[in-house]
Amino acid sequence: MSLEVRRAAVEDADHIARWNIAMAWETEAKRLDPATIGRGVRAVFDEPRRGFYLVAELDGVPVGCLLVTYEWSDWRCGDFWWVQSVYVAAEARRHGVFRGMYAHVKRMAEGAGAVGLRLYVETENERAQATYGGLGMEKCHYFMFEAPLKG
User: Fold this and answer.
1) Element (H or E) spanning 28, and its range?
2) What's the whole-model pTM score?
3) Which is the CATH superfamily of the domain at 3-134?
4) pLDDT tens track for 123-137
5) pLDDT digit string (tens) for 4-37?
6) Of 34, 57, 65, 117, which one has the greatest count of Cβ atoms within 10 A?
7) What residue ranges do the domains of the chain occupy?
8) 116-119 and 78-88 as β-strands: parallel, antiparallel, unpaired?
9) Element of type H or E holding 118
10) Using CA atoms, how far apart are residues 132 and 93, in angstroms rounded to an integer?
């Protein structure tokens, strides 16, 4: 199988939105509103400062994606690239799709002068944690907190 990883185009938005809906259900049993996620995905294409998506294709068929967003670190005077919204279609799993996307984004980040890559993972998702560790990522010593705001 031939794997190609490319920067997503707005024409990929519907695939990406569907994959996000599937990922939220698989990982958290959370139902996302299709209209909201559709607007959210397109907002990344409308405002490049928000980040960018990568799409993976196996033999020319789109099978997965990830989102990269940025976090400025004043301590390191550089950007961390956050890997988010990772999804690989069930039929394409265990074929190196995420590994290929991760290698691609790592090369891009190094070329852009980023200071590191970060991602978050569900505490129960041991398979994903093992995958990330196998790629050389390390568990950091931070907990994540959030305060949802009405918007």
Assistant:
1) helix 13-28
2) 0.92
3) Gcn5-related N-acetyltransferase (GNAT) (3.40.630.30)
4) 888 888 898 999 999
5) 999 999 999 999 999 999 999 998 899 999 999 9
6) 65
7) 3-134
8) parallel
9) strand 116-119
10) 15
